[in-house]
Specification:
Radius of gyration: 18 Å
Number of domains: 2
Largest sheet: 2 strands, antiparallel
Shape: globular
Distance between the termini: 13 Å
Structural class: mainly alpha
Strand content: under 5%
CATH class of the largest domain: Mainly Alpha
Helix content: 55-70%
Number of helices: 9
CATH topology of the largest domain: Glutathione S-transferase Yfyf (Class Pi), Chain A, domain 2
Number of strands: 4
């Protein structure tokens, strides 16, 4: 989702090929043996297989809303997103799929994830968004994961003490960019008319 959000914010046009991972098309496997999404094939033949790399690519090509910010902001962004993508995502996966990790309860995994949530809440006490008073790549990079976390047990999340984080999440859930990238597309098939996203 964050790759699509960054492409949407950048205004860069790409050809979209929606895939069903149970039926991975041969064309996808030919460019990316890793066989996960997202995958972006660039005109020069390079292949980007990580969503954060696609975020950087899109906003480097075009950044009309200046969501990249300056070098100092990018350094803070990369550090926060790295913590999200390593520590928080591991706790999120354990919480979301607690039945696959029966060593501990879902509540245990949730409490481990809360350290990161508390950090985000603290950031939001200082700024309207995670790092500044305007949307930055940090918000785009982290929002999809907080959304996943919240929906594991939405009632618990809505009653949690992370009131600023709840407001921040709701802002993005109600936003036009989020709703536009959540549109469903039919699975891609060889020979179909290209779909520009």
């Amino acid at each position: 989702m964050r790759a699509r959000l960054a492409i949407r914010y950048s205004g860069v046009k790409v050809q979209l090929r929606e895939v069903v991972l149970r039926h991975k098309p041969a064309a996808m496997l030919a460019i990316s043996p890793k066989a996960t999404v997202p995958v972006l094939l660039l005109p020069d033949g390079r292949v980007l297989e990580e969503s954060w790399d696609i975020v950087h690519w899109a906003t480097t090509v075009n950044d009309p809303d200046a969501i990249r910010g300056d070098a100092a902001l990018m350094s803070l962004t990369n550090a926060l997103v790295e913590k999200n993508d390593t520590d928080f995502k591991q706790h999120l996966d354990h919480y979301k799929y607690a039945d696959r990790f029966p060593e501990f309860s879902a509540e245990h995994y949730r409490s481990q994830a809360e350290e990161f949530l508390a950090q985000l809440e603290q950031n939001l006490s200082q700024h309207q968004f995670l790092l500044t008073d305007s949307i930055s790549l940090a918000d785009i990079g982290i929002f999809p994961f907080v959304r996943q976390f919240a929906h594991v047990d939405i009632d618990w999340f809505r009653q949690s003490p992370y009131t600023r984080l709840i407001q921040w999440l709701d802002f993005f859930l109600d936003s036009e960019p989020f709703n536009s990238v959540m549109k469903k597309y039919p699975p891609w098939a060889e020979g179909q008319t290209p779909l520009l996203f």
